[in-house]
Design a protein that fits this description.
There is one protein chain. The chain is α+β, with helices and mostly antiparallel strands and 636 residues long. Helix content is 32%, strand content 23%. It is built from 15 helices and 27 strands. A hairpin with a 7-residue loop joins strand 14 and strand 15.
Length: 636
């Protein structure tokens, strides 16, 4: 264990959490005796409640059998025996050690994310759908053989696939979808009842037992806990083990607590926009199974789900893309082909489940995923809904995030907090950042994430202040980057003003992240509606009057054509949109494109994939208070 990491991790813990962690270590050490255990079930068959509707064959006519899968851009064959412990990146194998004595995230040579992605079984619903379409018994045999092989190769608590509850839960939920598609259970006529009862059900039970026993808590109670309790609840409601009622009651209570704790005005506090679809799937699916089983959730729970959907509606463009902020690791609960935007899936799902027809998106089809979960009758509800896009520029405010949008403009001004809980694990130091999309073309971008634990220098860059469209002082971040998933000394941010007139929109925000450098920072955005002009004004108060290095940085879509005349920068798209940026004349400005030294000018649109992008940096030194304006003029 890295000593610096250990010390910094301790700094994020309260005394009760330290005591809890010590007890957890004792429990997990004692539980080593269960390593490789197989849970024998009573002779009485375990019944399965299939709460999902029957699938219409017409909806799966285009399904093809997947023999390869894409894992973070790498192709992997699943036509044959699967190596459940292989890291696709390094081609090395994770050992079959006691899961709680492994450190797979920080292993120097291997990358466990690739391994976990295969073990989530995202491909198995596709196989089940293909069997449903064709009735080919060889495919059915392939499904059961695949499950049996996983069971044989992954005994309880052995290896990396038992290391974390989130992976256990996502795997369980994909198995659950397969049980629904194949209509397994006591009345099944598929003829694999012995396999289900003697091998698969005991391992499903062990997944639920694991989730109940090893829930994430305290500073780890983020999306991991959400996933764990959603899997526990859905599994307990659908498989009738003797503990199922107790498990479901516990999980439902925690789901209610967490949806309240983790959201403000529908905005998830992790400050990681891509994670919103991942987390919302858990909360929404649990709600749906609760409703179908007669175990309804509270009105408060439903109200927060509605707020989340309203926020998703605001941050999602008509093409299904959203504004990125914070971490993004391409994580999904389900990946049912053909893949659609999951944000659009959720909007359509909330439309029909919570009866919110205004959330329907024009030209957003009822996806196969939604058909499996909600059925053909619900699709008719969606078809009767209407969807319109506004030509009027509107300002939306959610938990210190501001969005300016109409049918051709899409902009985001982020005054949000760093992240959730004491680690802010998935947050980026991006306060006061501004992003802009014109028509369907990104101009000012958030560069993304790229990696968590591999290539630490790039992890440090992509989460840094320098990698966002904001201001940095003395080359420092707005908070202290203590580890790949740990921030210390979190900043406080505040909204000073947001107002609107017939002529302009005005938003003003500030944060105290540079007080340690003797600087307070404020930024205002003024959007002139009638002339397509934006003025960004930054004001820095130099409290100790010492010389400070100040950088302003803007990251642009690499597909844009770029030219300059002094501090006037012109960026053009192939489709004709144009942005002219005028920096203050006191700045010395340069464009960085895929620079290695310093690391600057990089974008990551997919996890473990990066490409050069245009990053324009203006730099100056000041030993007193200073203000400067950046003018953005655009044509659409």
């Amino acid at each position: 264990m890295n000593l610096n990491w250990f010390i910094n991790r301790l700094k994020t813990m309260s005394i009760p959490e330290v005591m809890y962690r010590v007890n957890q270590l004792r429990k997990r050490k004692a539980d080593k005796k269960y390593m490789g255990a197989f849970f024998e079930l009573p002779d009485k068959p375990v019944s399965f409640n299939n709460y999902l509707p029957q699938i219409s064959i017409s909806k799966i006519e285009d399904i093809n059998l997947a023999n390869t899968i894409s894992v973070f851009g790498k192709k992997y064959s699943i036509d044959g025996k699967i190596d459940w412990h292989l890291d696709l990146m390094s081609k090395k194998i994770f050992e079959n050690n006691y899961c709680f004595e492994m450190t797979p995230r920080t292993h120097g040579e291997k990358c466990v994310k690739h391994t976990w992605e295969i073990n989530r079984f995202h491909f198995l619903p596709n196989w089940a759908l293909y069997y449903k379409k064709t009735g080919n018994k060889e495919i059915l045999e392939r499904i059961f053989s695949c499950i049996e092989d996983w069971i044989d190769e992954n005994p309880y608590l052995v290896g990396v696939n038992w290391y974390t509850g989130l992976e256990v839960s996502v795997r369980l939920l994909n198995w659950w979808i397969v049980w629904n598609i194949l209509e397994l259970g006591e009345e099944s006529d598929i003829g694999e009842r012995n396999f289900n009862n003697e091998k698969w059900l005991p391992v499903i039970y062990s997944h639920l037992h694991y989730l109940d026993r090893y829930l994430s808590k305290y500073s780890s109670a983020n999306n991991h806990l959400t996933g764990e309790i959603a899997g526990l609840y859905i599994g307990a409601k659908c498989w009738n083990f003797k503990e199922s009622e107790v498990w479901a009651k516990k999980a439902k209570r925690l789901l209610h607590e967490e949806i309240v704790l983790q959201h403000t005005q529908g905005v998830n506090k992790e400050e990681a926009s891509e994670y919103i679809q991942f987390i919302t799937d858990f909360f929404l699916l649990a709600y749906w199974i609760g409703e179908k089983s007669g175990d309804n959730f509270s009105m408060e729970y439903v109200s927060i789900l509605e707020e989340i959907a309203e926020y998703i509606d605001v941050i999602t463009h008509r093409d299904g893309e959203t504004f990125f902020y914070g971490d993004a690791d391409d994580g999904f609960v389900f990946k049912i082909e053909p893949e659609e935007s999951n944000f659009l899936n959720i909007l359509n799902a909330v439309n029909i489940v919570l009866k919110k027809p205004h959330l329907k998106r024009a030209k957003a089809p009822f996806s196969l995923k939604n058909h499996i979960l909600f059925g053909e009758q619900r699709e008719k509800i969606l078809d009767s809904s209407d969807a319109k896009e506004s030509k009027e520029i509107k300002l939306y405010s959610y938990a210190k995030h501001f969005y300016i949008k109409n049918e051709s403009i899409f902009a985001h001004f982020n005054i949000g907090s760093l992240g959730y809980l004491t680690t802010a694990a998935h947050g980026h130091a991006d306060c006061l950042a501004f992003e802009l999309k014109l028509n369907n073309k990104w101009f000012l971008i958030d560069p993304g994430t790229y990696s968590y634990h591999k290539e630490p220098k790039y992890r440090n860059y992509f989460k840094s202040t320098l990698a966002h469209n904001t201001i940095s002082v003395n080359g420092k971040d707005q908070a202290i980057n203590a580890a790949p998933m740990i921030w210390l000394d979190h900043y406080d941010s505040k909204v000073i003003e947001h107002s609107e007139t017939n002529e302009a929109l005005i938003i003003v925000g500030a944060h105290n992240g540079y007080e340690k450098e003797g600087v307070s920072l404020k930024r205002s955005i003024t959007w002139y509606k009638k002339v397509n002009k934006i003025i960004i004004e930054d004001s820095l108060t130099n409290q100790d009057k010492k010389d400070k290095n100040i950088k302003i940085h803007f990251h642009f879509n690499p597909e844009l054509e770029i030219s300059r005349s002094g501090n006037k920068w012109i960026l053009q798209s192939l489709s004709g949109e144009e942005l002219t940026m005028n920096l203050d004349s006191r700045f010395e400005s340069n464009n960085f494109f895929g620079s290695q030294n310093p690391i600057l000018g990089w974008q990551s649109t997919e996890f473990y994939k990066k490409q050069p992008c245009h990053t324009i940096v203006g730099e100056l030194n000041a030993d007193g208070d200073i203000s400067f304006k950046t003018e953005l003029m655009f044509k659409i």
